[in-house]
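Q: Could you predict the 3D structure of Glutamyl-tRNA(Gln) amidotransferase subunit A?
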Amino acid sequence: AHLDRIAAVDGAVHAFLHVSGESALATARRIDEQRAAGEPLHELAGVPIALKDIVVTKGVPTTAGSKILEGWLPPYDATIVERIKDAGLPILGKTNMDEFAMGSSTEHSAFGNTKNPWDLDRIPGGSGGGSAAAVAAFEAPLAIGTDTGGSIRQPGAVTGTVGVKPTYGGVSRYGLIAMASSLDQAGPVTRTVLDSALLHELVGGHDPRDSTSIDEPVPSLVDAARKGASMDLTGVRVGVVSELTGEGYQEGVSARFNESLDLLRAAGAEIIEVSCPSFRSALAAYYLIMPAEASSNLAKFDGMRFGLRVEPAEGPVTAERVMAATRGAGFGDEVKRRIILGTYALSAGYYDAYYGSAQKVRTLIQRDFEAAFGHADVLVSPTAPTTAFKFGEKLDDPLAMYLNDVATIPANLAGVPGMSLPNGLSDDGLPVGFQILAPARADDRLYLVGAALE
Ligand code: GLN
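A: Sure. Here are the predicted structure tokens for Glutamyl-tRNA(Gln) amidotransferase subunit A:
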């Protein structure tokens, strides 16, 4: 049914870069047989899933939205893919994204725009616009995204889906093409909070192949979601982050947010206001740390090891000249912009002024979170300042595009988990997202409060 749906609507939505129809059907048939034979199966066995194209899949094209990886067939599976395969979820295919996960609209993909199913003239968010659009358009019930600065949560907000960025270290990064290694996390994109809990539990947990993976059991997320569904939040302290509300947020976004606070109050939660002054500098710190790490991670795409190789049009074919020709042809403008920014921020003489200062701001943000979580069990804000914008609106203005991430970025800088869940429609008829943040390793609180609000 999902493959039929993809065939019917993906021409218009373009959520997928690659559809693995036959292997998905083969998995589905195998699970049917196992079920008929009475074999014990995982709760999600047979439920199809789509994967953001930054997740490495053995023998299946994996491009990270970039021409530089066109034609590369990975020789191995990411840990999360192994877990998904072991549990018997048919993999429908790979979804579109901003090149190397850099962007907030999926317009930076080298393979064309993904459309927002709510309005085909509008962006589906980014960088994981393909995963969010696939779930919103009923092409897939579950998807995997990655979130370095909001790329699961902001697409979730603008497409009316649930998206979760787990605690840093909660889900293995082995086999995710790295953008900014100290910020990257993979997580679920679904239509309900309980679906996210099931998928998060499946892919989460310790992995010795990721040196930053947390070596302790994941708190029970499914139990928390089931408990939250009873809508009793007595004793739960909810902190509204004053720096992430009010000015700069679209009127309809603020209105829906305030209505949700009333619902939380009605469920017995205590609503308090908290201030995190350093969040004002989060965007500036992120856009130094992220390009710095990305410039280093992307050095491996040199025309020798993976995918594209371009030889210089004339002159000698040296390693350096092949590298320059390949990177010149293979990377898009946004990726080049960030490599240049990152290389500059890391260069001798500027390192302390830029990268060093940004790291200090990062520590201040972590302290703000610690202080706020001294008073509140969870923190909340709108996920994104506006609903989905039109194609082209922010493409020529990188700073305007970056501003879309103000509310999502602090969580990545501090490593804490965050969820975006549907929060009704704004006055323009487009979906709004409600963001919940919890202390590191307390991802269960997202599910408790999220399920109560859903
Ligand atoms: N939009 C942010 C950026 O462009 C976040 C990207 C992400 O989370 N992958 O960096």
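Q: Anything worth pointing out?
A: The CA atoms of residues 72 and 312 lie 21 Å apart.
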